[in-house]
Amino acid sequence: MSGLHGDRKRVSRRRRYAAVAAALVVGIAAAIWFLRPSPSTPDVAEPPVKVTATPSSTPRSGVCASAATDPFAPTKLSVPGVFGNAPVLALPRDARGAVSPPVTEAGKREVAWDRPPGAKPGASTGNVLLNVHTWPDGTALGNQLLK
């Protein structure tokens, strides 16, 4: 009988190990489920495309009808050969310090300008910040600029 009793102990021990292992698997799965990113967490964006331009101290002739003599608030922006008369919106910076047009259908065709105290075009100092969107479907002003 001691042999039968020993077999029962082994079976009982195996069941306990199996129950503990199952509980661990369920616990780990629950932890993964609860610690996963929420659906509102944005996906990591690809790094932005690096665009470099060589600044020129003198404007090319024929590009600008007249040079600004005083600072002004822009209302429209045209980039010859790319797009023309895009509305310029004077917008505040967001919590990240960025200024961008609204993320809407209309925002695809709008330019964001860093409203004062940011620099105005025509000012003797400072950099004028103008931003546009790129969209996955390729229909925003930024996509046109990158082409």
Textual characterization of the structure:
By secondary structure, this protein is an alpha+beta fold. The protein contains 2 helices and 4 strands. It has helices at residues 2-35, 141-146; strands at 76-79, 83-91, 111-114, 130-131. The chain has a 4-stranded mixed sheet. A hairpin with a 3-residue loop joins strand 1 (76-79) and strand 2 (83-91). It is rod-shaped and about 105 Å long. 8% of the residues are buried.
Name the descriptors.
alpha+beta, 13% strand, 4 strands
Mean pLDDT score, rounded?
77
Poorly predicted regions are 49-57
Largest beta sheet: strand ordering: 1-2-3-4
Structural classification: alpha+beta
User: Largest beta sheet, briefly?
Assistant: 4 strands, mixed
Q: In sequence order, what are the helices and strands, one letter per element?
A: HEEEEH
Instruction: Please tell me what the overall shape is.
Output: rod-shaped
Beta-strand content: 5-15%
Give the tally of β-strands. Answer: 4
User: First CA to last CA: what distance?
Assistant: 86 Å
The helix content, as a percent range, equals: 25-40%
CA-atom Rg in angstroms: 31 Å
Instruction: Count the DSSP helices.
Output: 2
Secondary structure elements and their pairing?
Layout: H1 2-35, E1 76-79, E2 83-91, E3 111-114, E4 130-131, H2 141-146
Parallel strand pairs: 2-3
Antiparallel strand pairs: 1-2, 3-4
Question: In a few lines, what is going on in this structure?
Answer:
By secondary structure, this protein is of the alpha+beta class.
